[in-house]
Design brief:
Blueprint: H1 3-9, H2 12-21, H3 34-40, H4 45-52, H5 68-74, H6 78-86, H7 101-104, H8 109-112, H9 128-138, H10 143-151, H11 156-165, H12 173-180, H13 186-195, H14 198-203, H15 206-210, H16 215-229
Length: about 230
């Protein structure tokens, strides 16, 4: 029996027999290990524990570059993530934060927050007090007052939440204030650049910018973000 069949069986006895006969670090045509197959096919936790007890390679990557941890994130398997963390899996990626499991989990804040030890990560879930502070600022009618509040924020978590929930149609002013705030984290700047479509603004020529006064602040902000992110 091949590992693909074992992973789909969800039978612990089948898992035990496979462990005794097959290579626990074998790779399939897509570079996936037995552990990755177990995660993908939602093997019961007990079966995954049996496999992990064999001192398998937890850092292996498949042909997509995914590790077992990233597979567990993809399939939203929080208990498996906890198991892997308990085994000390590496949260850092040499390619940077965008290649990490935390980054892949950002749309599911609770899962991402399991991976907060990732270098450069930021907490995404807010407590009631933090959420109230974010809402108060985002629902402020006066952009000048909003900017004043943003300049005084001392929490990178709150600032990150504001950036990711800001109505960008209101213009770049408050977000330029957020960028100038010392607690603005690199990952917040990355999100800011993406949300404002910074790559587009960087392509505009001086002639195109000069044609409309409202364009220049956007271009300047994109340039500031690029400079900070390239440091």
């Amino acid at each position: 029996m091949a590992w693909a069949e074992v992973s789909k069986s969800k039978d612990l006895e089948v898992v035990r027999k496979a462990i005794s006969k097959l290579d626990v670090n074998e790779r399939d045509a897509r570079g996936r290990t037995p552990l990755m197959l177990f995660i993908t096919n939602r093997m019961p936790l007990e079966g995954i524990q049996l496999l992990m007890a064999q001192h398998i390679d937890l850092e292996a990557r498949d042909k997509l570059g995914d590790t077992a941890l990233k597979k567990a994130v993809k399939f939203k398997q929080e208990k498996v993530i906890s198991l892997l963390l308990a085994e000390g899996v590496n949260l850092h990626m040499p390619e940077g934060i965008t290649a990490t499991a935390w980054f892949a989990a950002r749309e599911h804040a609770r899962i991402a927050d399991l991976l907060l030890e990732t270098p450069g990560a930021i907490r995404l879930t807010l407590n009631a007090v933090e959420q109230q502070q974010v809402d108060t600022i985002l629902y402020e009618d006066s952009l000048d007052t909003m900017c004043q509040h943003i300049s005084k924020i001392s929490s990178a978590v709150i600032l990150h939440a504001i950036v990711n929930n800001y109505n960008w149609d209101d213009g770049p002013g408050p977000m330029r204030t957020a960028l100038a705030n010392p607690v603005c984290a690199p990952i917040t700047m990355m999100d800011m650049f993406e949300l404002m479509e910074g790559a587009y603004w960087l392509t505009l020529t001086e002639e195109e910018i000069a044609s409309s006064d409202w364009k220049r602040p956007w271009k300047e902000m994109a340039e500031m973000l690029r400079e900070k992110l390239e440091r």
